[in-house]
Specification:
Chain lengths: 304, 304
């Protein structure tokens, strides 16, 4: 295994398609990943938040990763999301990723307990890295307090980066607060700092950030790729904000899945994993009409 | 398997002792359970919140339940906590409990996603029950929004109770809001309504509630048992409040473990599972001194 490249540019947190039995549809997932890579996405994160990772068991997530590799997706295009509520599960998933040649892992903090101190968050990641015990590991810390309910403060990121130089490789900031992201760029300039909130990308790139791991890339990768170029026209940024304004009227994963279903003409995409619910038929219609009015034409792939 | 008795009276959400390797110490757990049953506790919930359930893998929780049964603890003294973030994990744990003769399960809502609608919570439990597909199952819904971040509103409890009569057997209300509990007693009088917040017990019992599943019972079962009797003297209620006022200055699981360590003279009890941290030595001293001053003498068992 050669030193894995740092995560940079446009990475997609892929949606997870389900079969009729509610399990992961490996063939459809591999087809989505191939399509995204062909469209210029740099790499993908299976079973992240957009991929409903915490709604799948460790075994389902291991099998999902294995299936992508078996389908010929190169390990250097993958960042494995391996964070679970239980440390033992996170250790198992992280070891599995390493074993299959994917040393880069995006890792949520443990998300059941609340009001954790900085010391507790530091020691959790520290124990994880020590227990996995593999110098090839490259950790991307995942800050998404609106869902994990456990923030990873810049002080903790800096302390971990100092304690595990090289192993702590980056941080994905999905908190949606650019001041927090700017603080990370100042505190840990040696790390890949990535955002989840797509409209922050132009500011991030001007400030020396690495890129994005995002959900919209499942649907409109070109729209996001445009934000990574130097001198982004203000119009491109506005369009991403407009897209989000429409989509975020709904729970975002079911909305993304409804758009993907419309794009592909394949209703199998509609179903999220419980506890998320699919958009109702009238919600799908309203969402797609609003996107159409805003100029986000959704033309099924097959008829293009 | 005969019809399992409804959960009533004093049930203890047992602490989970750890071995030096950080795994569950099965022998110490069985000894605690035997001790509590001998002291008059009606039954126990392993791997609940006080038992740090979500910090253990499905395999660790299955093995923990198996070890208790192998140690001779009767299934009718057990309520299995089986709720996980992933439906597939919750199904696996619930099926395992049923297979081992423990049809009564205390089940958290899925706790990663936030802002779930009532419909989403209803459909999650509905899909769980349908997937497990065993009429012997007895579900105790677990409302603890301060940690799960997903409330189970009385309307949802009532809807589930109507859809699955007999299978929905009770609800544990650990929200700490007695108005919410009173609402449950009105809406679903046919269910066992239990509280987690010990000082609400006298009011609950006067209003027709079933009892408690609580953490203090690990340490002072007599203190809580007194609150279940008719005509509780106000002093008994005050003493429980006083105990909580002292203990809740600290994260409650590490504090409970520190008290258990002092009671048994066994420092192995101190360690919680990450991300929780053990109380520091000075915190242990301060906690134990405050309890002593308040009349909660902690005398190691062995020297009694």
């Amino acid at each position: 295994m050669t030193e894995p490249a740092p995560i940079r540019g446009l990475w997609c947190a892929t949606l997870t398609p389900l079969g009729r039995d509610g399990g992961v549809d490996h063939a459809r997932l591999a087809a989505l990943v191939r399509e995204l890579l062909a469209k210029g996405v740099a790499g993908i994160v299976p079973f992240g938040t957009t991929g409903e990772g915490p709604s799948f068991s460790v075994a389902e997530r291991c099998e999902g990763l294995d299936a992508l590799l078996a389908a010929g997706i190169a390990p250097d295009r993958l960042l494995a999301a391996t964070g679970c509520a239980a440390l033992s599960d996170t250790v198992a998933l992280t070891r599995h990723a390493l074993k299959t040649g994917c040393p880069r892992c995006l890792i949520l903090p443990p998300f059941f307990w609340k009001n954790l101190t900085d010391e507790a968050v530091f020691r959790y990641y520290s124990m994880l890295i020590d227990t996995v015990g593999d110098t090839r590991l490259r950790v991307y810390l995942y800050h998404i307090p609106q869902l994990s309910a456990v923030p990873i403060r810049p002080e903790v990121v800096a302390r971990l980066a100092a304690a595990y130089p090289g192993i702590i490789a980056g941080v994905k900031d999905s908190g949606g607060d650019f001041e927090h992201t700017a603080g990370l760029l100042r505190r840990v300039p040696q790390l890949s700092v990535l955002v989840g909130h797509e409209s922050h990308l132009p500011r991030l790139m001007r400030a020396g950030g690495a890129g994005t791991i995002c959900g919209i890339a499942n649907l409109f990768p070109d729209l996001i790729a445009a934000l990574l170029k130097p001198d982004v026209p203000p119009d491109d940024e506005t369009r991403v904000r407009m897209f989000l304004d429409i989509v975020l009227r709904y729970p975002f994963v079911p909305a993304f899945k409804a758009i993907r279903a419309a794009q592909t003409g394949d209703p199998a995409w509609l179903a999220p994993r419980p506890p998320l619910l699919p958009l109702a038929a009238d919600e799908q219609t309203t969402l797609l009409a609003a996107l159409h009015s805003a100029g986000f034409g959704i033309v099924p792939e097959r008829s293009q």
